[in-house]
Design goal:
CATH architecture of the largest domain in chain A: 2-Layer Sandwich
Structural class of chain A: alpha+beta
CATH topology of the largest domain in chain B: Rossmann fold
CATH topology of the largest domain in chain A: Alpha-Beta Plaits
Radius of gyration of chain B: 29 Å
Number of domains of chain A: 2
Distance between the termini of chain B: 34 Å
Strand content of chain B: 15-25%
Strand content of chain A: 5-15%
Largest sheet of chain B: 8 strands, mixed
Shape of chain A: elongated
Helix content of chain B: 10-25%
Distance between the termini of chain A: 62 Å
Number of helices of chain B: 13
CATH class of the largest domain in chain B: Alpha Beta
Number of domains of chain B: 3
CATH architecture of the largest domain in chain B: 3-Layer(aba) Sandwich
Oligomer: heterodimer
C-alpha cells in the first residue's frame, strides 16, 4: 500500500482544549498557585508518612506500577533488570582463566558504533595454544560510544563477549574512564558471579581435543 | 578466431587453449581451486567440471550410476554424463559446453565442495584467509549446505612452520598443489611435496629442507584457502578492513606491479599482493619485493630537520634560504634520485634549469642480488627514468670528488638513500628525502618527502616500461610530495616555479619525455 502523509494537520478529535488563564492579579502574584503546589507536595508527604508509620508502604521496586510512590532510593535500591537486559560487556574466560576471545574481529566488524578496538597476537613460544590460535593483546571497548545494540554478542563465534553483567555504565568524571581495557572486561562477571559461560568448547590445546600434530596422528 | 559455446555464450580461444582459460579471458569464471593461469593444470580439485555436449548425431558418453530416490529411500539405477575438468580440456571449434546451466555440473560442484569441507576445521575466525577464501566464496555460490558429518572430523597438523616466511595448516588445506607447482615451476626450487594419502594427505617440505628462497611468499599468494599463511601478515589485520591501491614495487628496477593493501583507519600499509601484468611480472613477485611495503613506514623521514635537529617545514625553508644566500645560483649542484618518481625528478630538473646550473648528478641505492626470474641487480625503482630525464647527470661519486676538491659548495639533493655511505662534511646540503640515508644524515636542511605509497608517481622499469603507482596512504607527519617540497623550496630561494599541481607536471613530463629517444633496456 502506498503511504501518504496527511496534507493537513489532524483535526482536534484527540485534542484537549485548555483554557488559558487570564492575567489578573491573583495569577500574576503567583501566591494562590504556590499555595496549591505546596498543598500537593504536602498531601503526598503526609500519605508517605502515614504509609511509613503504618508500614504498608508499597515496595516501589517491584510494585512500581501500583498507585503510590514511584520513587526509589537509587543507588541503594535498584529496579530489577529483565533477564535479557544488555548491560556492560564482559569477556568470558576458559577454565584456565585465559580469554575465550580469539581476536577474530567479528564483533568490531559488526559494531555499528565502531567502539571496539582489538589488537591480535599469537601465543608465545612454548604455550600449548601456540600457533593454533590468536588472542587479543588489546581489547578495548569505548562504553561511551557503545549503543548497547548487542550485535557484538551475536557476531561472536566463540561466546567470548557477553552483555549479561546486569550493570550499566556508571557516571565517571572524565571520558577516558569509560574506555574499558581487556583486564577490566575480563574481571566482570555475569549476575551469578561467574567469569565463564555455560557453553562448552574444546579447542586445540585443550585436554579434551584430539591430537593435531604429526607425532600423534588421529586415525 | 575460433569459438566455442559456454552456456550459450560464444567464447573465442586460441588453438590449444583450455576451456577455463578462454572463459577467464572473456570474464566468465568457472569455479576452480587448483587451476592458476600462471601454472600447469593438474586437474585434481575437480571443481571446474563441465559437461560437453556430444556432436549432433553422436551418442553422449553416459555413466551408469545409482541415484537415491528421496521418496522411497532406495537407490535406483540412473545415468549421468561424464563430466570433464575445464582446466585441462582443450577448447575446440564449435564445442558446446554447459556449466551453470547443467544440473549435473551444479550437483558435481556441490559434491566437490562438500567433500573439501568434510574435514575442514571451519576456524574462519582465526584464519587470515577469511574474507578472501575460495572455500567461503564457493560455499556461498555453489552449495549452501549444512554439514552432514556427525563424527569428529579428521585432525591434521596445524600451524606447522614451513620456513622463515610461511606457516602451514593441514586441516584447512584442499590439496590443490598450487604451492608445490609454484615452487617447482616459478621458483625452480621443488622443495614442497605431498605425503600420506586420503584423509591424511598433506603438504610437506622436502626432508632436511625448509621452505626458503626468494619466492616463498608466492605459495601464500596462490593458496586459494587459508592453509598457507605468511608469518609477516599472520594475525595482523582482517582483510575486509583493508583498502587496495594499485602500486608499483620499489624494491628493484623490475618494477613489479602490486596491490598495496592498507588500512585507512590507521593510515598503515599491511601487505603487497602481486598485480597481474604480462609485460612486467606476470602474476608473481619476489619475497623482498613482497615485504618492501614496510618501506612506507620504516626508515621514514616525517619531520623537517635543520642541522640534525627536528624543526618545522617553514623554519627549515627559511634556514635553506639562508644557507644558499651567498653563492651564485648557477654553482648549485643538483642530485637526482633513482629512488624517487619521475614527477619528483622533473620538478628538480625544472628547479635546476631556473638556477641555470649544469652541475647535475644522480644517486641511488647500490646494486644487490639478482636472478633470472624477477629480481634485478639494480635496487632502484626509477634508474631508467632518471637516466632518461637527465642523461647528462653524472654519478654521485663525481660530485663527492668535486666537493672534496673544493669546487662545489652548495648541493640540492633528492632522496636520502645512496650507495655511498659517507658524504664529506662541510658542504651546504639541502636534501628532500622520504627515507633516511647518507644524504639525509649529511643534510644541513632536510625536508620530509612522502614515500611512493603516499603519492601518485611514475616509475620507469629497467625494460623501459613507464608505470604509474597510485596513492594509498595519507602523508605521514609533515611530509609532502617531493615536487611540492621542491616548489616550496624554490619559492623560499626566491625563484619562480611553474608547477603547483601534479596534473601540470604530468602534462609537461609527457611532452618532455616524448622528445627523447626511446629508452634503452
Amino acid at each position: 500500500m502506498k503511504r501518504t502523509f496527511p496534507k493537513h494537520y489532524p483535526t482536534s478529535i484527540n485534542a484537549v482544549v485548555v483554557s488559558r488563564a487570564e492575567r489578573d492579579l491573583p495569577v500574576q502574584s503567583y501566591i494562590p498557585e504556590v499555595v496549591r503546589g505546596v498543598g500537593v507536595s504536602m498531601k503526598h508527604f503526609f500519605i508517605n508518612l502515614r504509609d511509613m508509620l503504618q508500614q504498608n508502604r508499597p515496595d516501589p521496586v517491584t510494585e512500581r506500577l501500583d498507585p503510590g510512590i514511584s520513587t526509589i532510593s537509587y543507588p541503594e535500591q535498584k529496579r530489577p533488570y529483565p533477564d535479557r537486559f544488555r548491560g556492560l560487556h564482559r569477556l568470558t574466560t576458559r577454565a584456565d582463566g585465559s580469554p575465550r576471545c580469539v581476536a577474530c574481529f567479528c564483533c568490531s566488524t559488526a559494531c555499528p558504533a565502531q567502539c571496539i578496538f582489538i589488537e591480535a597476537g599469537e601465543y608465545a613460544d612454548g604455550d600449548k595454544r601456540r600457533g593454533y590460535e590468536k588472542y587479543p593483546v588489546k581489547f578495548v571497548i569505548d562504553e561511551l560510544r557503545c549503543i548497547f545494540c548487542g550485535f557484538c554478542v551475536e557476531a561472536c563465534p566463540c561466546d567470548a563477549i557477553r552483555m549479561d553483567t546486569g550493570m550499566h555504565a556508571v557516571p565517571y568524571d572524565s571520558r577516558d574512564q569509560f574506555i574499558y581495557p581487556k583486564d577490566t572486561l575480563l574481571k566482570f562477571t555475569d549476575r551469578a558471579g561467574k567469569t565463564q559461560t555455560e557453553n562448552p568448547r574444546h579447542e586445540p590445546g585443550d585436554a579434551s581435543h584430539p591430537g593435531v600434530n604429526r607425532e600423534h596422528p588421529h586415525y | 578466431m575460433p569459438m566455442f559455446k559456454l552456456d550459450g555464450v560464444d567464447i573465442p580461444f586460441e588453438p590449444g587453449e583450455t576451456l577455463i582459460s578462454a572463459a577467464a579471458k572473456k570474464g566468465i569464471e568457472i569455479p576452480h581451486y587448483c587451476w592458476h593461469p600462471g601454472l600447469s593444470a593438474p586437474a585434481n580439485c575437480r571443481m571446474c567440471l563441465v559437461e560437453i555436449l556430444p556432436k549432433p548425431g553422436m551418442r553422449p558418453l553416459m555413466l551408469d550410476v545409482l541415484e537415491l530416490d528421496s521418496k522411497t529411500g532406495e537407490y535406483k539405477p540412473a545415468q549421468k554424463p561424464k563430466l570433464v575438468p575445464a582446466c585441462q580440456f582443450p577448447a575446440a571449434e564449435g564445442l558446446e559446453v554447459k556449466a551453470d546451466t547443467s544440473p549435473h555440473v551444479v550437483q558435481a560442484r556441490k559434491a566437490v565442495q562438500e567433500s573439501l569441507l568434510l574435514n575442514h576445521p571451519v576456524d574462519c575466525p582465526i584464519c587470515d584467509q577469511s574474507g578472501e577464501c575460495k572455500l567461503q566464496d564457493y560455499w556461498l555460490e555453489h552449495g549452501k549446505f549444512s554439514k552432514r558429518l556427525r563424527d569428529e572430523p579428521v585432525h591434521k597438523p596445524k600451524a606447522v612452520v614451513f620456513g622463515p616466511t610461511m606457516v602451514y595448516d593441514a586441516e584447512r588445506c584442499v590439496l590443490c598443489t598450487r604451492c608445490i607447482r609454484v615452487m617447482g615451476e616459478i621458483a625452480k626450487d621443488p622443495v614442497l611435496g605431498m605425503r600420506e594419502r586420503g584423509n591424511l594427505n598433506e603438504i610437506s617440505v622436502a626432508p632436511g629442507r625448509q621452505l626458503d628462497g626468494h619466492y616463498t611468499l608466492m605459495t601464500e599468494h596462490v593458496c586459494p584457502v587459508g592453509a598457507l599463511t605468511s608469518q609477516d601478515f599472520r594475525f595482523k589485520a582482517r582483510v575486509w578492513f583493508l583498502r587496495t591501491a594499485s602500486s608499483v614495487c620499489q624494491g628493484c628496477a623490475t618494477g613489479c606491479n602490486a596491490h598495496l593493501d592498507y588500512d585507512p583507519r590507521y593510515n598503515k600499509a599491511f601487505r603487497y599482493r602481486p598485480r597481474e601484468n604480462h609485460a612486467v611480472n606476470k602474476y608473481w613477485m619476489c619475497d623482498e619485493g613482497m615485504l618492501s611495503y614496510r618501506q612506507a613506514h620504516e626508515g621514514r623521514i616525517t619531520e623537517a630537520r635543520v642541522n640534525g635537529k627536528t624543526s618545522t617545514v617553514p623554519a627549515a625553508l627559511e634556514a635553506a634560504a639562508k644557507l644558499f644566500e651567498g653563492g651564485a645560483r648557477a654553482s648549485i649542484a643538483v642530485v637526482f634520485s633513482a629512488q624517487h618518481s619521475l614527477e619528483d625528478n622533473w620538478a628538480l630538473a625544472e628547479l635546476a634549469n631556473t638556477f641555470g646550473t649544469t652541475l647535475r648528478f644522480w644517486s641511488g641505492k647500490g646494486d644487490g642480488d639478482q636472478d633470472a626470474i624477477l629480481r634485478h641487480a639494480d635496487k632502484n625503482p626509477n634508474t631508467a627514468g632518471v637516466r632518461g630525464l637527465v642523461p647528462e647527470a653524472k654519478p654521485l661519486s663525481a660530485l663527492l670528488e668535486a666537493v672534496q676538491s673544493g669546487t662545489v659548495h652548495h648541493v640540492l639533493a633528492l632522496g636520502g638513500m645512496t650507495a655511498e655511505a659517507i658524504i664529506p662534511a662541510g658542504i651546504k646540503l639541502i636534501t628532500v628525502a622520504a627515507h633516511d640515508g647518507s644524504l639525509a644524515q649529511a643534510a644541513t636542511v632536510l625536508l620530509p618527502a612522502t614515500s611512493w605509497a603516499e603519492q601518485s608517481g611514475t616509475y620507469v622499469t629497467a625494460k623501459g616500461v613507464r608505470q604509474v603507482s597510485e596513492k594509498a596512504l595519507e602523508p605521514l607527519g609533515a611530509s609532502r610530495p617531493a615536487w611540492e617540497q621542491l616548489a616550496a623550496l624554490g619559492k623560499a630561494l626566491g625563484v619562480e616555479v611553474s608547477w603547483t599541481k601534479l596534473r601540470a607536471i604530468r602534462s609537461q613530463l609527457t611532452a618532455s619525455l616524448s622528445e627523447q629517444a626511446p629508452l634503452a633496456s
